[in-house]
Amino acid sequence: MCAHRELSCLVGTDRRIRVLDAATGAVATYPPKPRRALTCTLGRVPSTGEYKVLAMVSVTRRWGHGNYQVGMVLTLGSNGGGWWREIGSPPAIVGRRHKDVAVVRGVAYFSIESCLHGHEQEAHMILGFNLETEEWLPNIFRVPTARDGEDDDHGEISLAEVNDFLVAAHRHRHGASSVKLWFMMEKTKTTRMWYPLYTIAMPDHRASRFRFEKPLQVLNDGRIVVWSSTTDGSHDGMPRIYDPKTDTFTEGAVTQNCYAAGSWTGCLLRVGSSDPRSHKTLELLEDEESPIWQALRTIEHGSEALVLQSTTTSVY
Predict the structure, then answer these.
(1) CA terminus-to-terminus distance, the chain
(2) Nearest to 167, CA basis, from 188, 197, 138, 140
(3) pLDDT tens across 254-292, in order?
(4) Is residue 19 part of a domain?
(5) Is residue 258 part of a domain?
(6) For residues 243 and 223, is the Cβ–Cβ distance under 8 A?
(7) pLDDT at res. 191
(8) How far is the C-alpha of 279 from the C-alpha of 284, rounded, in Å?
């Protein structure tokens, strides 16, 4: 499952794509997920309000000479035709797990697994795909290391959209005592930097079969919602809420056979169509400068960024 803003995307055992509008309860069914596509990603084009589903398909070269990837896009709504379209191959082999991709402000960011054409890959790099133009961004971004002076190979990165920011969560591969959350923010119109906003003290991995998977949301009171998954191969998942003030976790219900979870950030008071195929929202809510939109935001980006620039000294 993946969620973005007001819609959620689910893939059933029949591989068919189902899009849920939680505000109205309406469900729309689309063609099956492409074969050899491990996961699907749901995103929204800010300029048009259009939703698209993105999937990366692994293709084996003839005579067994390695693999390459092909991107596939499904545009929701009547204008999209309801069919998967090829968008070409990414400039590098990207991760296809849910924690390897995050959609932020119309761009899908992927962790790079390996470079093409035999070039050596630097550790923990990400690249972006523009959902509006359906083109890969020319720049590749480096994700900050877990700790100063530590070898990148000892850490694992998960990407997430948290409160409308791209977040890289860095944990130690062999059982983290803490997870550091790095937020990518715009320092200037042309410069973006990583800021380490939160450090989550994790429970002893030997005392629980659940481990940190990815962050989901920062709540108004400062608590952090994260998703945890099992390490025993059962694919069970569980939400946890971390309270930085008390350094404690509140555990939610365990969901069996759940590969991934997403954060739904829509408005249950929204007035609009009950059919996700023709999804529309109030024009007032489309205006991000409107008082209603500002009231619905779960974090004040402006004031938070000012605090970060005055207190953060180590950035990448």
Answers:
(1) 31
(2) 197
(3) 887 776 777 777 676 655 544 444 443 323 223 344 333
(4) yes
(5) yes
(6) yes
(7) 80
(8) 15
